[in-house]
Amino acid sequence: MEYGTAQEPRQKQGILERLTAIDRRIIFVIIGVVVAVPVLYPITLPVLVSPPVQDLYDAIDELPPGSVIIMAIDFDPTSEPELYPAYLAIARHVFSKGLRVVALGYIAPGIPIGERALQIAAEEYDKEYGVDYVNLGYKTGMTVALLMMGKEIWDPYPRDHYDTSVEELPLMHEVHRLDDVALAVDFAHGVSPDYWIAYAGARFGLRVGLCATGVMTSQYYPYYDSGQLFGLLGGLKGSSEYEALIGAPGSATAGMTAQSLAHLVIMAFIIVANISYFIVRRRSPGA
Amino acid sequence: MDLTILSTWIAAFLTLAILSFLYKDNPVYKFAEHLYVGVSAAYWMVYYYNNAIVPNLIDRLVRDHRWLYIIPGILGLLIFTRLIPRVVWLSRWALAFYIGMGVGVVIPATVQAMLVAQLRATLVPIWTGNVGASIVNILVVVGVLSVLVYFFFSREHKGALGGVARLGIYFLMISFGASFGYTVMARISLLIGRFQFLFYDWLHLR
Amino acid sequence: MRKTVPLTIVFASGIFMLAVFFVPHRRVQDTSQVLLEWDLVVWTCALFLSGLNLFIVNAKKVRRKERDWGYKVVLLVAFLTTLVTGLAWGVRAGTPFMFIYESMMRPLQATMFALLAFFISSAAYRAFRARTREAALLLAAGLIVMLGRIPIGDMIWHRIPVITDWIMSYPNMAAQRGILMGASLGAIATALRMLVGVERGYFGGEG
Fold this sequence. Notes:
The complex is a heterotrimer of chains A (about 290), B (about 210) and C (about 210).
Chain A: H1 15-20, H2 24-40, H3 51-61, E1 68-74, H4 80-96, E2 100-105, H5 111-124, E3 133-138, H6 142-149, E4 183-188, H7 192-203, E5 207-212, H8 214-217, H9 221-225, E6 232-234, H10 235-245, H11 251-283
Parallel strand pairs in A: 1-2, 1-4, 2-3, 4-5, 5-6
Helix pairs in contact in A: 2-11, 4-5, 4-10, 6-7, 10-11
Chain B: H1 3-19, H2 27-63, H3 70-79, H4 91-122, H5 131-150, H6 159-202
Chain C: H1 4-22, H2 26-63, H3 69-89, H4 96-127, H5 133-148, H6 151-156, H7 160-195
Helix pairs in contact in C: 2-3, 3-4, 5-7
Keywords (chain B): Membrane, Transmembrane, Transmembrane helix
Keywords (chain A): Membrane, Transmembrane, Transmembrane helix
Protein name (chain A): CHASE2 domain-containing protein
């Protein structure tokens, strides 16, 4: 792989030209330092809650105790830093309100990540597996599973993640169809929200909320605006907002210092590069 | 040695191996890259076998004696004719079933959840009695229509059509800029996650 | 046999699944559940084919001792080890398969994507220029959102998060809705073309 070092004789270049042709490894070092140092020495910054995250929180908060919610683990290690904190925060919120959880997912490597969050929250609130929460685990074929769940959840999930028959799980005796579920929150890093919205939402009338990676967030605003999503949490910032709402700052809040500094540095990169570009262009219009 | 510690050390080595690519492509990175491809391909195959082939084919045939399930079994085997050029055309039968099912499921879902619901949400009153809300509604309607016009390629984007399409481009650019901002956030978050692993879980610096 | 059968299968299965949406009769719904299971099996076999193909392609490279063949050995060993441990000992916590997941797959996957933090920063510096009005709009929106989505943005000026929310909720939302509706129309048109046999890309270029 070729690296973009400036090959022209450097003594002939001005500082601005050199700035625009900087070796990208220097940029890498700056970004590495700017992220690493605040990870080691984080400062707790005040987090402002945005309306889509507040809506997500309110919808869960307003549910009567005993209601069942689906927490879908549709992410994997590639988005763990963004969505694990959200999963943990919402699991804590859900258990603190006396709600019950059916966890499941369509991305296998994510199941152990969601499972860990669920177990931490369950231990904190003294919740019992099978009664207060179940983990149905991974299922291949999301469309098929969702369509089947509209009619009978036991069909695609005859056994849970631990290979226990769902018949032996008391909670599952109250959960047969999506109608038995108050709402679903999809923790997603791919196209899974489209399926939740189209099948669980539009076809079977289930209320769907979304915790998405930052990359996906902007494209789900139309669904939030149309009411097809009752709430929308985007990336690490969204996770930190939820942590603030439940009053339990976690890894997302801790990451906000590094996030803030990195954003400021990248913004500075963009501004400096543009100023250099325009000055150089003015000096030599043909460039 | 405790397996958790061993696991953490292997994970730390592989993390650093991948990060070494930032300096330049090197044998350690290539090793980690090929390891990744091999492990993840097999990882998924194991899950597909356990979660689809066993419950939806083998169990149906062997345990439930539902013999009609021999049909998806045969169709599934036909897929593998892709590897035999002489009879590759047989794989089309299996693909045809998959595509037909997909088409039948996708059409109503797309119409209902994406087209109709989004259209309904766009049909908002232009004048609401409140100036701010009305301006926002007009903005949304104009934005949606101009972007749709931009994607309408059956006519050349000239004159009034070209002007509206250009407006659509402006809306798209704002949206792509917003997506860029969020993408930066996402990528930095992932790096934060890796540093948290290296500093907290591996080196126990906090 | 080569054309008529697959076209008939697409049409029949497609029309049936379309009918399922409109016909709530129990027998139709039950049949659709069975067909969906069949669909899952076929889809899974296609994915197995991709895994098998990966193995064959790399095994050939090793046999011919092509460039970088040593790394292909790593790939094949990793592939076979993961496959055998998963099938022999299962995928529960504490199994060798989960050890491979925790120690290798998880960090590798996460770090591969974390690399992008460096590349997006470099790209932002080297290529993100306000050369045109459109690029300037993109750049301005990007900068505002980047600032509005960090706590420091609020500290700098309390209106920045409000402006960010406004951008996300209105101009961004309108553009994304336009894209969504355009893509939906395209998807429906393509699906209909496939249903009636006009679109035959899945024939592999011999349609």
